[in-house]
Amino acid sequence: MEDDFGYEGRRRIRVPLLERLRALPMVASAVFTAALILLILTTVNRPATWNDALPWEDEPSAAPVAAPINADAPVAQSPVPRTPAARPATTASASAAPSAGGSTPAPAGSPSPAPPPPRTARYEAESAGRSQARTANDHNGYSGSGFVDYDNASGGYLQWSVPGGSGTATLRLRFANASCCHRAMDISVNGSTVLRDVRFDAMRTWDDWSTVTVTVTLTAGTNTVRATATSGEGGPNIDYLEVVQ
User: Fold this and answer.
1) How far apart are CA 71 and CA 133, in angstroms?
2) How far, rounded to the nearest angstrom, does the alpha carbon of residue 193 sit from its chain's CA centroid?
3) What CATH number did the domain enclosing 213 receive?
4) What distance in Å separates the CA atoms of residue 197 and residue 183, rounded to the nearest whole number?
5) Cα(211)–Cα(174) distance, rounded to whole angstroms?
6) What is the pTM of this model?
């Protein structure tokens, strides 16, 4: 250190640069120590919050604060989960495991064709065999060349030869009956009575026609269908027989 006297006569002390640099670590250490003490005091005096909980402590976290909703902001679209497309069902033959013998399963057959629609065949009454009955055309509304009028006696009948297949069939008898009461008939197929006293109700006039429907069983080939009057007034007027099978 050198003494230096200025023009004012006062003594000034000059500190060399090297001695100044030596004082810097002491100053930095003092500043660091003061900051560390301040940090410790602040941490000790600060109240504990949920965020200070240790990771292994089962403490609930603070509830998130909802951000204010901006009405003008576009709504974020959440992605729609994609559903995997359904795989086509495999046929039983394709999914079946090979047999013990190692043979390849047979390919699936083609789908069965739809059954044909029922066939309707009409048989006019005036073309049928008959007993105690006559052909007439003195009333209106019939089909063909006329209709059949039963005699007023029990036992008269109409008989048709009906080709068909084996199985059930629907018979439709179109009739007119303007007498005081209903009239009844037995229905037989191939000589066996299958329905007894089938009722044919009375109507307003003989020009009014209605239909009675019954179900019978036919055999393959030609079948004999007979409608026999069972009342003393005979049977009703019959226009035709329809067979649906």
Assistant:
1) 93
2) 46
3) 2.60.120.260
4) 9
5) 4
6) 0.55
